[in-house]
Amino acid sequence: MTDLTFGLIGPLDIWCAGRPVVVPAARQRNLLAALLLRANQPVTKRRLCAAVWGEHVTECAEDTLRSYVMRLRRALGPGIAGRLSAEPAGYLLRIDQDDEFDLLRLQASIKQGKAAARAGDWDASMRAFHACLDLWRGEPLCDVPSEYLRLSFIPMLTELRAQVWEGLYAAARELGRTDELLVPLQRLSEDDPASERFSVLFMSALAGSNRRLDALTEYRRLRTTLIRGYGVEPGSSARELHGELLRDEPGAEGHPHQPQLVTGAAAGLIPRQLPRGASMFVGRDREVRELVGYLAAAPDDGDTPPVLAITGFPGIGKSELAIAVAHRVAGHYPDGQLYADLRGTAAKPAAPGRILAQFLRALGMDGRAIARDPAEQAGQFRSLLAARRVLLVLDNARDADQVRPLLPGSRSCGVLITGRQGLPQLREARLTVLGGLSESEASDLLRSLAGAQRFAGEPAAACRVLAACDGLPLAIYTVGARMAARPAWSFGHLARLLADERLRLDELGYGRASVRASLEFAYRDVRRANARAGDVFRLLGRQGCATVTAAQAAALLGWPAGDTDATLEVLADANLLVSPAPGRYLLPTLARLFAAECAN
Predict the structure, then answer these.
(1) 3-class secondary structure for 175-195?
(2) Where are the domains of the chain?
(3) How many CB atoms lie within 10 A of CB 220?
(4) pLDDT of 21-45, one tens digit each?
(5) How far apart are CA 86 and CA 79, in angstroms?
(6) DSSP label at 210?
(7) CA 588, CA 515: separation in Å to the nearest integer?
């Protein structure tokens, strides 16, 4: 092993001359991870900006990126900084040998394992694939908050991991040692219950160990998971293996097939698609009581279903509230609960036609009978629900137009919708606008995450941490999760990290949760729909405004009062501003800090 190593297959991990190297700032970790993922290749400034600030940032100044590179060099120290060089096309991080970077070691070991298998050296193949497994240290990129990097790295690593286990199984089968893999393959199947590749491997290993009935049980578990969660049947590889197991054919012990999902009927099955509720959900008693009461009430006269929409500031906890309410009222909807993430914050939100087809399959309709035209699909959907009591949860909606085709026509059904913007235009819906948590609710959430004893030991410092979070559940979750993961940290230390407003958003990120990322999505959508609204948001950040009136904003911009008021309302509709009174607007603390970043 060399004196310098980098690791991404788990938390970002750097060692130099036997000592760990810490990169404390989230954006610097984003930058380093982006350079590592293209090690020994120049990475363009545009790609680095996307990794650091988000994919849709177009105003990333080269001076700002240059300053981040300088800070990263300082954090890495003299023993590593020389590896990071400026190139005409961008920046390059040099890795001198595969042993210095766990991803390169992984790819090299996979090649060795496959080469040994082709040569018939199954012992060497098994050793190589076991070496691959030793490289996993936990959730990859768990402390690198860049969604841009995760979207490219995690699928690639998932594929590599599947290749490792398939290669390991092939070697174990040739050596007659599949029994050794039963426990880890069972754990993989439990950790990722919808993965056909791992389930097929587990079934094959069970069959190879003369446990055919257990293999059939695993197939039933996989099929139930896929139908209930996604409304689809297992793919061809799982179904073929299942058929071989039923016939007790020797092929059941052969090579597992590559999985390929195909749709199928789910006739007679009641869909139960609600995601698992958040174990740390606290507070929101008034909202829960009102929403549950409305959805649980007995159907009354009328033709339209109860439709509830939840909106609010990015990270305010809309989805968590909706799912908590849905679980509480599920018993009032005995014919099933349907759930869909409408991907409203993605560059390409889910098409209503795709969601309708998914729901129709989950309700038992044969895929061949589903109409191709979305309008016809909507008619089929309403017809199926006409005599049923089904609850729909439409999470993360982009706007009212995306939602309307998905609404049932029967009063017997209920609908819960969440979205950051656009839902006030859904006239069919009763709107709930979420605000920040109260002081007691915020304290309860942080206490449940970080531990009651630690909270009680430093109440003043814990209150300073909560003040920096400004009542935002996502922010409280990130600091609570960091405290839980860092037993040696004190609330005083965390409060000092959060005290500098210029760096606060760097600290309010943990794993995939990031306050900055949620604000970036909202800001991107506003700018795309209304460039002037983006200009006003940046202006407020440049001025450091916590509150502003329409008249004050008009004076700053030199715009007519009517135009300014309309533009401020666009920001309010996007929940980046709060309007406590007509003509008066409040910029929440974390939004103000983000606006200041956008202005730089």
Answers:
(1) CCCHHHHHHHHHHHHHHCCCC
(2) 4-100, 118-141+162-263, 285-434, 439-504, 515-599
(3) 10
(4) 888 888 889 999 999 999 999 988 8
(5) 17
(6) T
(7) 13
Beta-carbon count within 10 A of 51 CB:
24
Q: Is 305 helix (H, G, I), strand (E, B) or coil?
A: coil
Measuring CA to CA, how many Å separate 290 from each of 280, 367, 439?
20, 38, 21
pLDDT confidence tier of residue 267, bands split at 50, 70 and 90 = very low
Report the alpha-carbon distance of residue 246 to residue 8 in Å, rounded.
Answer: 43
Q: What CATH class is the domain 515-599?
A: mainly alpha
The superfamily (CATH) of domain 118-141+162-263 is Tetratricopeptide repeat domain (1.25.40.10)
User: Which residues are registered as beta bridge partners of 587?
Assistant: none
- C-alpha to C-alpha distances, 223 to 17, 194, 247, 551, nearest whole angstrom: 51, 9, 19, 61
Q: Encoding tokens for residue 336?
A: 């099933």
Say how far residue 509 (Cα) sits from the centre of its chain: 13
Tokens standing for 59? 């105003």
Does 285-434 match 118-141+162-263 at the fold level?
no
Q: Read off the DSSP letter of residue 272.
A: B
User: What is the 8-class DSSP label of residue 101?
Assistant: B
- CATH: 3.30.310.10, 2.40.30.30, 1.10.10.10, 2.40.400.10. Which one for 4-100? 1.10.10.10
Place of tokens 């689809």: 232
Nearest by Cα to 264 from 144, 373, 357, 393: 357
Q: Are strands 578-581 and 584-586 parallel, antiparallel or unpaired?
A: antiparallel
For helices 550-557 and 561-573, give the axis angle rounded to 10 degrees.
Answer: 110
Q: Is 232 helix (H, G, I), strand (E, B) or coil?
A: strand
265: pLDDT strictly greater than 70:
no
Asked whether 278 and 477 are in contact (CB, 8 A), the reply is no
Q: Which two tokens stand for residue 341?
A: 């993430």
Enumerate residues 6+ apart whose C-beta is below 8 A from 457: none
User: Which of 597, 573, 569, 447 is closest to 49 using CA atoms?
Assistant: 597
285-434 carries CATH number 2.40.160.60: no
Average pLDDT, the chain: 85
Residue 458 has pLDDT above 90, yes or no: yes
Dist CA 457 CA 460 (whole Å):
9
- CA-CA-CA-CA torsion sign (84, 62, 529, 548): positive
